[in-house]
Amino acid sequence: MRKFTFFVFTLALGMVAGALVYRQLLGRGAGAPAAGQGKQARKILYYVDPMHPAYKSDKPGIAPDCGMNLEPVYEDGGAAAGAETVAMPRGTINVSPEKQQLIGVRFSEVRAVPLSRTIRAVGKVTWDETKIARIHAKFAGWIDTLTVDYTGQLVKQGQPLLSIYSPELLASQQELLLAQKARGYLAGSPVKEAAAGAESLYAAARKRLELWDITDDQIQEILRRNAPIKTMTVFSPISGYVLTKNVFPKQRITPDSELYTVADLSTVWVIADIYEYEAAAVRLGQPVRMTLAYDPGRSFRGTVTYIYPQVDNTTRTLKARIEFPNPGLQLKPDMYANVEFVVDYGRKLAVPEEAVLDSGAERRVFVDRGNGHLEPRRVELGEKVGGWYIVLSGLKPGERVVTSGNFLVDSESQLKSAAAGMAGMPGMGGGDQGKKPAQPAQPQAQPGSMPGMDMGPTSGQPAAKPGKAAPPSQPGHGGHRP
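User: That's the sequence. What structure does it adopt?
Assistant: Structure tokens below.
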């Protein structure tokens, strides 16, 4: 029993000693600088609860709600004793390295990095409209024979397509032959005007055939034979595939009749649909890579040659025209293809995506100012490329920004900004901090009353309860008569 009593006495003595030491530490101000420390002592405005900055006190001590030491707020804006006095923007907070590790704060450096992106779209192969030939005859007549007689046939440049009998063309050939004979007869005439007239007549007859697209070889054949050709052959002006055929044997045609449509597939167009928000990154002359679903191991290289001026109202996409060479005619019209636009931005000053806090109205990052100070800073950013934002203004190369734990840091910064705003309000700090509010005057005790007992305005009535007004005395009831 005596041993137990001795143990209890020793434990109580230790607790009393610990309480005395703790009270002595509290008396020093929990992080406040000692009195007379240095010639330039920092002035303390008030003390705040680090977890609830709205709670303020004019003395150091313990926060009543969380049990943490109250931290001083200095006149120069600092937050920790012994730290360098540096003018910091509003909202800057101080987070010790231990707290940074606890909440998982990580940093990344703002630097210039090479940026590029790939815009993927779906395209459709179509004909090159600049290499489509619509074939007409410039004279009326009847189809005699067809050399190319079905749609889709591959033809070469200069290949015969059909032959036409035309009385009008036959008469023009005879005129050429007569003009040739007249020029031969009058070439040696002493009358120069006659020779010149025969020469001009021959030139006019030959020019008429040329304007009807009769080739030089055909005209030379007419002159060599010295007889008109009954049916005239029409040749293909380009190499390609026959898209349309509108002629049949013995059919009558006129100059406005379209005989064939031939398309050259040595180059093709691909019309790609680009989403509206990506259209700004596509430009003329931009290189493009294309692959086909059925042949993924092969790629084609092309160039953007035109961007259509209107957005599709249904799909909200913009169409871009890409030109591809087509050796071996592997690309067929109406094929679907996967298109990749390579956008190269070069080296740009960039900040990681994780560092940016986007509120909709503005974008902010937290910059490491050293000694645990984290400054909220508004920045202007350009496009997002991969995991980076291009920096337009607000940051410099080499600065460190918070990339992890920034939501907790932002919450603490906003609480501090709100507390600083409340400090300037009447009764919430400012110039009146540190002063105790005036206490209401206590009524003097009446003669005969006990110490500590408030007898109220008269000796015959009890004191009013706290928070309630004392009832007025009624005439003739209680109190001392004069």
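Residues 143 and 248 are 7 Å apart (CA to CA).
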